[in-house]
UniProtKB/TrEMBL annotation:
Compositional bias ranges of the Polar residues kind: 22-32
Spans traversing the lipid bilayer: 43-63
Organism per entry: Fistulifera solaris (Oleaginous diatom)
Domain of life: Eukaryota
UniProt biased composition (Basic residues): 1-12
UniProt-annotated stretches for the region Disordered: 1-37
The protein's name: Sulfotransferase domain-containing protein
Keyword terms: Membrane, Transmembrane, Transmembrane helix
């Protein structure tokens, strides 16, 4: 074997420069690609919205699933538990209690639901979305006792724009197809007109038909001056009046002569609402009325007919027997906003003072009743 051949065999074989470059690029690109993918994954899963999303969506889905099953499809759990049947919007429930804003409606709803375990809600009557299958306590549901509006234009101020903190939204009356993520939209505005057309003055239509019927309707009253004091604390900032109150009062109780001051707006609202409920009571649309300051939770339950309903008699009657506090007049613990407003008849003009005095007498109060 020649020396040249031995040299070739002993010489280390090397790849061409091009092949070496390709191999080096391939080997170096693999870990770099893995690093890029890991970085993108970390960026995605570490984003604050992604981190928070499960904590928001899981409770949200569980909340809606809970309400859907119990209120709309309780039969799904029939193999495991005996649940209360679903109640459609058009099916009757036991009681509707109406009263002006600041007349203690929140307190009464709290008393009936908390102490007696009744499904009574404040301001809402949609029994497919809320636990209100026993009844509703509300000021705005009183529109069913008002005279029907002459035209749809009268509803526009309540529907074109959403007015917050006034106890009215279309979702309170029936399930809607509008997005629950939006407080107000064109869809909600359309639903608003539809709800008002069904509800406003429905007891005065020829067929006396309201979409949601109640077996018993009560009117809860509070001393007019005490009610006006609370409303003044809520809606009056000095002499100016909150526009929300003006919007609703003008729509529900239009008048050619508008009130001049915030105190007059408050008085006008209480007087007009109370007069409408008095007329409804005279027509028989409201069965009973009671003074909230002198009435116990058990008396309200009795007036509402819960002691005559076989499904709730043991539940309510037993608690009234066992708890003496439920037989005492209610003490306000919910939504107390008035701390320092005190009104007397001298704070009003002669015309308003005359009307307030007449209402006080009609409701069986004295002027200095506290």
């Amino acid at each position: 074997m020649s020396s040249k051949t031995r040299q070739r065999r002993g010489k280390k074989q090397t790849a061409p420069p091009e092949a070496t470059a390709i191999r080096n690029n391939a080997s170096s690109s693999e870990p770099r690609q893995s690093t890029d993918e890991k970085t993108l994954s970390q960026i995605f899963w570490g984003h604050p919205l992604i981190v928070v999303l499960p904590y928001v969506m899981i409770p949200y889905l569980l909340y809606h699933a809970y309400h859907y099953v119990l209120l709309q499809r309780p039969e799904l759990l029939s193999p495991f538990a005996t649940l209360r049947p679903a109640l459609a919007i058009t099916e009757p429930r036991q009681v509707l209690i109406v009263g002006t804003m600041s007349s203690g409606t929140t307190q009464v709803a709290h008393e009936l639901s908390t102490h007696f375990g009744l499904e009574v809600q404040h301001e809402v009557s949609d029994s497919t979305s809320y636990f209100c299958r026993d009844g509703t306590v509300s000021w705005f549901h009183g529109i069913r006792f008002l005279s029907p509006p002459a035209s749809i234009e009268r509803m526009a101020p309540l529907c074109v724009n959403f007015t917050q903190n006034m106890g009215f939204h279309p979702r309170m009356y029936a399930a809607q197809s509008c997005s629950s993520w939006q407080t107000w939209s064109a869809c909600w505005m359309k639903s608003c007109f539809e709800v008002l057309q069904r509800e406003w003055g429905c007891t005065q239509r020829p067929n006396h038909h309201c979409e949601t019927p109640f077996r018993v309707t009560l009117w809860q009253v509070r001393h007019p001056l005490r009610t006006m004091e609370s409303l003044t604390a809520k809606f009056c900032n000095g002499k100016s009046v909150h526009p929300s109150l003006v919007t609703f009062v003008e729509a529900l109780f239009p008048s050619k002569q508008k009130p001049n001051t915030c105190l007059e707006w408050v008085a006008y609202y209480v007087l007009e609402y109370s007069q409408a409920m008095l007329l409804a009571h005279q027509r028989g649309d409201i069965v009973h009325w009671y003074r909230v300051e002198e009435t116990s939770p058990c008396q309200v339950a009795a007036l509402a007919g819960f002691l005559n309903d076989s499904s709730t008699v043991p539940q309510v009657a037993q608690k009234c027997r066992d708890n003496e506090l439920l037989q005492q007049p209610m003490i306000s613990t919910q939504y107390k906003i008035n701390q320092n407003v005190t009104l007397t008849m001298s704070d009003f003009s002669n015309e308003y003072a005359r009307r307030i005095k007449k209402l006080i007498q009609a409701l069986g109060y004295t002027e200095d009743f506290k």
